[in-house]
């Protein structure tokens, strides 16, 4: 299967990001220990979510090596990224909340 192209994806970052920000608005503000962003893509929005939700530990999960390469630029004290398949991770999920704006 072809990998994602982060540069092409970013051409429409504003339009695509709106769905993510709409999702964030639905989450009640609270200090959260951990949260996960399934299908995190290039990581900018994962970082924005960590800040807006005041998350102690935010983990972005994606199965695209190209997207994770870009996401690595956004690693910080409370944000990290891992390779993984969101469909299998979601089954045993112990995170709250779990965000996901991922579509093929
Ligand atoms: C449309 S992008 C969304 C990226 C980011 N959530 C955003 O809103 O900008 C979809 C992302 O989901 C990832 N993805 C799709 N299916 C996945 C799966 N089964 N497991 C992990 N990541 C997946 C893709 O690699 C891609 O980075």
Describe, in plain words, how this protein is organized in 3D:
By secondary structure, the chain is an alpha/beta fold. The protein has a domain at 18-89: Rossmann fold. It has 5 helices and 4 strands, in the order H-H-E-H-E-H-E-H-E. Helix 2 (13-25) runs parallel beside helix 3 (44-53). It is globular and about 35 Å long. The structure holds S-adenosylmethionine. The site of S-adenosylmethionine has 18 residues, from helix 2, strand 2 and helix 5.
CATH architecture heading of the domain at 18-89: 3-Layer(aba) Sandwich
Mean pLDDT: 87
Structural class: alpha/beta
Quaternary: single chain
For the termini, the CA-CA separation is 11 Å
The CATH superfamily title of the domain at 18-89: Vaccinia Virus protein VP39
Briefly, what CATH class of the domain at 18-89? Alpha Beta
Poorly predicted regions are none
Main beta sheet strand tally, sense and closure:
4 strands, parallel
* CATH-derived topology of the domain at 18-89: Rossmann fold
Order of helices and strands, N to C? HHEHEHEHE
Bound molecules: S-adenosylmethionine
**Tally the helices: what do you get?**
5
**Helical content class:** 25-40%
